[in-house]
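2024-03-11 09:14:02 DEBUG pipeline.ingest accepted 1 chain
2024-03-11 09:14:02 DEBUG pipeline.ingest length=168
2024-03-11 09:14:03 DEBUG pipeline.predict start
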Amino acid sequence: METEQKTNEVIAREALHTVLQQGVDFEVTYNRTSRFRRMLHLPVAKKFVIYPIHLGTLMRISSLILAIEREDEPTGGDYFEYGLQTIVKNKDAMVKIAVHAVMNSPCTSVFEKVRAWMLRRFLDRNLSARDLLQIIALVIAQMDVTDFLASIVSIRRASIVGTIKKTG
């Protein structure tokens, strides 16, 4: 019984890693479709794919997450004002996280900077709060920091073992 449970856990973990190696796609629909778009029968949604996050992008997204301002909860119970202030302060950072995840590369050239700006503008104008939450959840799943943390632990363990062997 325990071996079946362990094999099921291993299979589930491997399936998760397989899914994480592939991209996860999502669509963002235009809030307002223009006459031009309707006249030419252009698509009313854009499709994006978030692939597993590279290490440099992981660092940039992590720094954005750490830069998100956290305020103390209101003592008087004015949660509406607290929510509004939080949205105003952190909306741009959340959209930037989504942009970094979609692009998944450093914006070094002028073309990539313009592309990132246009993507940020599109997402800012067309995402709802629920859509942004779902995209951030996808980003967190694609970040998969467990492997990174495991590598740090293994390096530390190796350095500790090396130190013990030298002294012992």
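2024-03-11 09:14:41 DEBUG pipeline.report Residues 98 and 136 are 7 Å apart (CA to CA).
2024-03-11 09:14:41 DEBUG pipeline.predict end
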